[in-house]
Amino acid sequence: MLIKKGLLAFGPMEVGALRISSAGLVLAPFIARRLNKITRKHWLKLASVGLVGSLIPAFMFAIAQTQLASGVTGVLNALTPIATLVIGALFFHQKARLAQVIGVAIGLFGTLLLVTASANGSWDFNLYALLVLAATVCYGLNLNLIKHKISDLSPLTITGISLLMAAVPATIYLFAGTEFITQVQQPGAMLSLFSVLALGIAGTAGALVIFNHVVQLTNTVFTSSVTYLIPIVALILGILDGEDFWLQQGVGMLAILVGVWFANRRGRSGMAGIPQK
Questions:
Q1: In this protein, which residues make up the domain named EamA (predicted)?
Q2: CA-CA distance, 254 to 248, in Å (whole number)?
Q3: SS in 3 state form for the chain?
Q4: Whose CA is closest to 59, among 173, 221, 209, 211?
Q5: Nearest to 64 by CA among 128, 116, 160, 15
Q6: 206 or 250: which carries more pLDDT confidence?
Q7: How many angstroms separate the Cα of 220 from the Cα of each of 116, 179, 256?
Q8: Left if phi > 0, otherwise alpha if psi is -120 to 50, otherwise beta: which for 273?
Q9: What is the pLDDT of residue 267?
Q10: pLDDT class for 81, splitting at 50, 70, 90?
Q11: Domain map (residue ranges) of the chain
């Protein structure tokens, strides 16, 4: 919803850049004294977390939101646990159970329905839905990187430094590569500005600190299941904001949620990891 409001005055590239810029800069004062804990082996991994966990998805979601309803975007985001599971099994030697494979298949069926649903509910290939799907793959990779590669760092260190590294190119692009300065002076732009700032500061920086802490306390699939709540909130806000709701979208959304639930219904039993200081 905040992305949608941001797009009223700004283009999708500006929304994505402003979101990451504000998220990285707001945490900068809190990580200065933590830099001495970063070794040479951490820098590339933190840069990768900032890239695939924040920078790329921010632009993908902003672009997709120009052609997708908030509810559809929210439900597609619920594929993050499935992406986390698949990437963990393929690249991080995590075992997959039969229930998880079935859940993935059901979720992919629901995704196919949403990808072939146009903005007006007709059957048509919607390329913008693939952007959200790609963003969930980025989130899945990011979760596995944090859990398996940099679990020795604190959540605030991981979030703050990775976001700051992503914020540098985002800020340069925002002010040097877009018409942000001109557009922010237009009538009505303040609503969009504060919406994106709220998204960056609270919905990205603040939420990621908490989220990355939960990653270290539990396992990646269980942690990513927080996305169960996103479709519910997104659908309610979308309908309240006057968005249409089509049968094909409803079937696709239901299939995704069933698939994600099926793949994760025994996820708690596999909790691993201990809190890091």
A1: 2-115, 128-264
A2: 10
A3: CHHHHHCCCCCHHHHHHHHHHHHHHHHHHHHHHHHHHCCHHHHHHHHHHHHHHHHHHHHHHHHHCCCCCHHHHHHHHHHHHHHHHHHHHHHCCCCCCHHHHHHHHHHHHHHHHHHCECCCCCECCCHHHHHHHHHHHHHHHHHHHHHHHCCCCCHHHHHHHHHHHHHHHHHHHHHHCCCHHHHCCCCCHHHHHHHHHHHHHHHHHHHHHHHHHHHHHCCHHHHHHHHHHHHHHHHHHHHHCCCCCCHHHHHHHHHHHHHHHHHHCCHHHHCCCCCCC
A4: 173
A5: 128
A6: 206
A7: 29, 39, 19
A8: left
A9: 47
A10: confident
A11: 2-264
What mean pLDDT value characterizes the chain?
Answer: 83
Joined together, the tokens standing for residue 277 give 């200081």
How many residues does the structure list for the chain?
277
Going by C-alpha positions, the residue among 111, 169, 164, 165 that lies closest to residue 137 is 111
Rounded to 5°, the CA angle 241-245-248 comes to 155
- Comparing CA positions, the residue from 8, 35, 29, 4 lying closest to residue 190 is 8
Span of 19-28, 100-109, 194-203, 244-253 with lowest mean pLDDT: 244-253
Residue 106 near residue 99, CB atoms below 8 Å:
no
Residue appearing with tokens 């700051």: 164
Taking the alpha carbons of 242, 245, 249, 254 in that order, is the dihedral positive or negative?
positive
Percentage of the chain lying above the pLDDT 70 cut: 83
